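User: Could you go from structure to sequence for me? I need the amino acid at each position, not a summary. Structure tokens:
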């Protein structure tokens, strides 16, 4: 049993054009609260349609409905949509494909076919029960049981080979694969046996093409690749498995596969007759950070871009895990983290607490006091050796619903710094309502004196989710031109559950076109 959209896993693919306005009615027939987030859509002035529960709306209650209305402006490529309430997105997700406007074309030769490759993560359990159990015990949640490609685990699991996803190709074709990492908690390597992949876009922004044998995507990220039918007609596995950067943390080490099948290939073996097995690719080692680094450093925008230079807000955010001491009124069964603690996570030592009775955007719009404060620290409250041996006294963050205020039009730089508290880890950090330029990444502690000179201010890639390197940092820049309340969080759902999030409140500018629209009449009530 799984909660799905329209009975499909993955859910329906939305195919639209740049410039289209969408109206999507979401009817909640499940027994849990639900919302849908349109991941990577800019939502200019339409924050009410963004979807994160208790951030831009109250949830759609069981039996209720809400119509999301928004326009796609200036974005082309692959995005996706997913639930943004508890762990529902384990099965509530689908592709959002944005093609060029009528009469316009891709900046690369038109592919013969296009296929969405949606990477998912599967539990042989109700994912809501999995996260509820972890919240009860304070321990890490149970690992998933499989990864999937377009809803199917593939031939390497004991249950599923008759339904393995098949992706067609033929000799001489150039096809477009739109790869989406919709897994809940795991960055993934993806590769196709004997075939090179030419990366042409990511997160609905075009890139300077480069060729690679393996790509890596953090949860939330998308990558568009061209694949050429230039091998012997046969069947080749495409495969995905974990990139695991956290030391000694248990993880799902299984491999999901689909089959790239040449139309002119010899017929696959009939049931019971052993035919040739598809050719299996080699995948990087689970902890192969070097491959991840080489891949992310290959990203460039296709031409020179306008990167904000005169910075108004220079922010420095630590991102990482923590451990809360067991509250005195808790039995030991509720403190099953390391040494009788409870897992937590934070940014700048604030562990984010979501409101429970009204959304942040409603509180901001209507001036309702007591829901949030605007004192999120722009720099760590305490400086320390972030990636070194950190004193246990710094393991326990402060819970709070703290936002950071940005003036309309301000030019923002954020350095996101991983910490080695509990364990260093690659964190895919997603900012709602914005794309940003990744101007640099590096390892160790960010040093403004030496690292600023390495910034790419000419053609950095534009993304909505950045993989902050394990034991390292990433620097991003954007202009705060979209008023509203926008959450920035780790897209490993286990970490957002623990509080690895913060939110910006971007004030209105001058006049209607620089102001948040009025809330829609059917916005769910709390």
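Assistant: Here is the amino acid at each position, in order:
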């Amino acid at each position: 049993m799984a909660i799905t959209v329209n009975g499909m896993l993955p859910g329906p693919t939305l195919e639209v054009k740049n410039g289209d306005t969408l109206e999507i009615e979401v009817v909640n027939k499940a027994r849990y609260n639900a919302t849908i987030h349109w991941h990577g859509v800019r939502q200019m002035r339409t924050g009410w349609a963004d979807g994160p529960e208790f951030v831009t709306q109250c949830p759609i209650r069981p039996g209720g409905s809400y119509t999301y209305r928004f326009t796609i402006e200036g974005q082309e490529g692959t995005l996706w949509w997913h639930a943004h309430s508890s762990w529902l997105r384990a099965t509530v997700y689908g592709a959002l494909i944005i093609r060029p406007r009528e009469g316009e074309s891709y900046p690369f030769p038109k592919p013969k076919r296009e296929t969405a490759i949606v990477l998912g993560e599967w539990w042989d359990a109700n994912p809501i029960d999995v996260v509820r159990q972890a919240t009860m015990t304070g321990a890490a949640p149970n690992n998933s049981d499989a990864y999937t490609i377009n809803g199917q685990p593939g031939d390497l699991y004991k249950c599923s080979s008759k339904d393995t996803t098949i992706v067609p190709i033929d000799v001489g074709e150039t096809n477009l694969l739109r790869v989406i990492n919709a897994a809940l908690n795991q960055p993934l390597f993806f590769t196709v046996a004997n075939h090179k992949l030419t990366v042409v876009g990511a997160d609905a922004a075009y890139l300077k093409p480069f060729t690679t044998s393996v790509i890596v995507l953090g949860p939330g990220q998308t990558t568009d690749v061209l694949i050429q039918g230039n091998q012997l007609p046969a069947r080749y596995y495409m495969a995905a498995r974990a990139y695991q950067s956290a030391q000694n943390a248990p993880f799902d080490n299984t491999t999901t596969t689909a089959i790239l099948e040449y139309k002119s290939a010899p017929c696959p073996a009939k049931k019971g007759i052993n035919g040739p097995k598809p050719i299996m690719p080699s995948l990087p080692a689970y902890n192969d950070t070097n491959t991840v680094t080489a891949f992310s450093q290959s990203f460039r925008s296709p031409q020179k871009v306008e990167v904000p230079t005169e910075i108004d807000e220079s922010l420095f955010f630590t991102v990482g895990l923590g451990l809360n001491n067991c509250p005195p009124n808790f039995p030991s069964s509720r403190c099953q983290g390391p040494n009788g603690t409870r897992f937590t996570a934070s940014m700048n030592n604030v562990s984010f607490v979501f409101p429970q009775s009204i959304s942040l955007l409603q509180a901001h719009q209507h001036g309702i006091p007591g829901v949030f404060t605007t004192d999120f620290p722009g720099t760590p409250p305490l400086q320390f050796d972030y990636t070194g041996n950190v004193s246990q006294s710094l393991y326990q963050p402060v819970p709070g619903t703290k936002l950071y205020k940005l003036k309309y039009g301000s030019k923002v730089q954020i350095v996101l710094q991983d910490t080695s508290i509990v364990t260093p880890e690659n964190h895919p950090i997603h900012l709602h309502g914005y794309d940003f330029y990744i101007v640099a990444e590096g390892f160790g502690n960010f040093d403004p004196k030496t690292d600023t000179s390495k910034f790419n201010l000419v053609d950095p890639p534009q993304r909505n989710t950045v993989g902050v390197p394990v034991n390292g940092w990433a620097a991003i820049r954007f202009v705060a031109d979209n008023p509203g309340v926008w959450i920035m969080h780790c897209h490993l759902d286990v970490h957002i559950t623990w509080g690895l999030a913060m939110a910006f409140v971007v004030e209105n500018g001058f006049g209607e076109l620089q102001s948040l629209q009025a809330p829609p009449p059917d916005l769910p009530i709390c």
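One structural detail worth keeping in mind: The two ends are 28 Å apart (CA to CA).
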